[in-house]
């Protein structure tokens, strides 16, 4: 089954404790991206990747890191989480269509709370 | 950079009535346009997309959208809504640059409420 898998789905952590949210897709998509969703702000892009070893900042990259060592995986790293990173996070992937992202397939989301 | 505006934060429609959700974008060239739906507690699902060609596109669940270049709009429509259509709807735009790309930009969403 084609899917985007995120883990963990739910996490409560404390300020400053490094954490990683994993994302894996089995559709051989070139493009992968992370979004955060906050009430009244919609989805905002954190980072995206056009292919292996190619990553770029989205609209709200501060406090996050990513890596793309393999095509299927795109982990989101919070080196020193802060309470303002409490949010619902979505990973998404797609094929590239004429240089841009095509239809995005989303994971089910990871709800992160930073105390 | 591109931007997307969904002017209506909330819309309430009676079951069986028609629906139109508005979306306006700001981008210099013709972008790729999408509508996604998010049911409570779920991820996002693609309803329909426009890349080129016929400006009226059909999607899943009986939805359609019309691209109007002159108005920079991509409004979503459904002739008769069902209670199961209650959800959050997001319009999104991706630039077509033919060689490199920014990411996909989403509007802030429209929350659709269905009245019995």
Quick recap:
Chain A is built from no helices and 13 strands. With 115 residues, chain A is an all-beta fold.
Notes on the structure:
The complex is a heterodimer of chains A (115) and B (116). By secondary structure, chain A is mostly beta strands. Helices cover 0% and strands 53% of the residues of chain A. Chain A is globular. In chain B, the strands form three sheets. In chain B, strands 2, 5, 6, 10, 11 and 12 form a six-stranded mixed beta sheet that branches. The model of chain B has no long low-confidence stretch (mean pLDDT 89). With 116 residues, chain B is mainly beta. The radius of gyration of chain B is 14 Å and the shape is globular. Chain B starts with a strand and ends with a strand. At the A-B interface, β5, β10 and β11 of A face β5, β6 and β11 of B.
Topology diagram in text:
The complex is a heterodimer of chains A (115) and B (116).
Chain A: E1 4-7, E2 10-13, E3 19-25, E4 31-38, E5 42-51, E6 54-57, E7 65-66, E8 76-78, E9 87-94, E10 96-97, E11 100-101, E12 105-106, E13 110-114
Parallel strand pairs in A: 2-13
Antiparallel strand pairs in A: 1-3, 3-8, 4-5, 4-9, 5-6, 7-8, 9-12, 9-13, 10-11
Chain B: E1 3-5, E2 10-14, E3 19-21, E4 24-26, E5 32-38, E6 44-50, E7 56-58, E8 64-68, E9 73-78, E10 87-94, E11 105-106, E12 110-115
Parallel strand pairs in B: 2-12
Antiparallel strand pairs in B: 1-4, 3-9, 5-6, 5-10, 7-8, 8-9, 10-11, 10-12
């Amino acid at each position: 089954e084609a899917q985007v898998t995120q883990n963990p789905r739910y996490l409560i952590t404390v300020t400053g404790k490094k954490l990683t949210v994993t994302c894996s897709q089995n559709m051989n998509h070139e493009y992968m991206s992370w979004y955060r969703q906050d009430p009244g702000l919609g989805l905002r892009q954190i980072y995206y990747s056009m292919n292996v070893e190619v990553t770029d900042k989205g609209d709200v990259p501060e406090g996050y890191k990513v890596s793309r060592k393999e095509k299927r995986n795109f982990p989101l790293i919070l080196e020193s989480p802060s309470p303002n990173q409490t949010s619902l996070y979505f990973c998404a992937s797609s094929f590239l269509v004429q240089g841009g992202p095509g239809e995005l397939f989303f994971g089910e989301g990871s709800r992160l709370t930073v105390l | 950079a591109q931007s997307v505006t969904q002017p209506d934060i909330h819309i309430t429609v009676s079951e069986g009535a028609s629906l139109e959700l508005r979306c306006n974008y700001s981008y210099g060239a013709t972008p790729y346009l999408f509508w996604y739906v998010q049911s409570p507690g779920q991820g996002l699902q693609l309803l329909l997309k426009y890349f080129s060609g016929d400006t009226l596109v059909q999607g899943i669940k009986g939805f359609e959208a019309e691209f109007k270049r002159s108005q920079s709009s991509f409004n979503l429509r459904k002739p008769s809504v069902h209670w199961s259509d209650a959800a959050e709807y997001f319009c999104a735009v991706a630039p077509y640059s033919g060689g490199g790309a920014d990411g996909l930009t989403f509007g802030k969403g429209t929350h659709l409420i269905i009245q019995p």
